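Troubleshooting log. The previous structure file for this entry was overwritten by mistake, so regenerating from the original sequence record. Sequence copied from the archived sheet and checked twice against the printout by T.R.
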Amino acid sequence: MTKLLVLSGHAVREVLGYRECADAMRDALIARANGEVFQPLRSVLKPPGAPGLMAVMPAYQQGQAAGYGLKAITITPGNPALGLDTHQGIVLLSSSETGQPLAVLNASAVTEIRTAAVSVIATEILASADADVLAIIGTGVQASSHLRALSSTRKLAEIRVAGRTTYKAARFAATHAAQAGGTKLVASPTVEQAIAGAGIVVTATNSAAPVINRDWLSPGTHLNAVGACLPDQRELDTATVASAALYGDSRESVIAEAGDYVLAAAEGAIGPDHLKAELGDLLAAKPGAQGRAGEREITIFESLGLAVEDLAAAALAYDTARARGIGTLTDFE
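Regenerated output below.
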């Protein structure tokens, strides 16, 4: 009899570590670069008047027992006011041989962890080797996950956080101090002060307007732009995007969906050739894929998220949960 494994958000977080997930993201991105992944551009349903939207993200990866993955996720910007993550949904894993459903996972937890894990990979290959000051802009779920992910995988001298208000930044710093891995975590009164001299910057906000000004960035800074995932939203001003080396997890997705790119392109500041490479191409050492050009170059990783990342993270969580007896098994026939 077919058994379906159900993993709650708590269970996903119990079995999916950031370092292990980052390694899985590396493998998935290389597999995609090598043509071993089939993945269409995500479909987005945004009904007029609805408080949010739904995205549907399918993927298939060759050579995997759980070869099919499908994430159906809603994004509701007003959720934090209700104490909820903006992202709500499920990830479905199915057998590559029979198509039978194997597991259903909490998509909020999968997205939370795999997004930060991909930023770990981007930071490892694009940031300066000696970058040890991290600035996080935002105080929500992704700010928290990036704090845990980067502090657990990189030696940092200081972590700064800035939010919509000084109160939110101070509360975040106080609440998450224990998750900083012993690194000093400070609340900055402004975004400008947070990123001054920082070698690594994470933007994880719900803002539709730029929170980063090019004049505030130091030479050699690496940015992981995480928050703006729609064509009409941006976290980075045009000058920042135009003056930096731009990378993405998917060229097609960045050009079609990333407001940081789309709005700068609409102003005539950049074009498709401004995107230097996909992360997977760098990891797979594809011909022509070039990383950081020098210590003073500013680099941007435009993070939109890929279905194959959800598939790889969910498969890792599924295998680990089965080995450790975590989750709820239910008959599915």
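The chain has two domains: 3-111+308-331, 118-306. Archived copy saved in two places this time.
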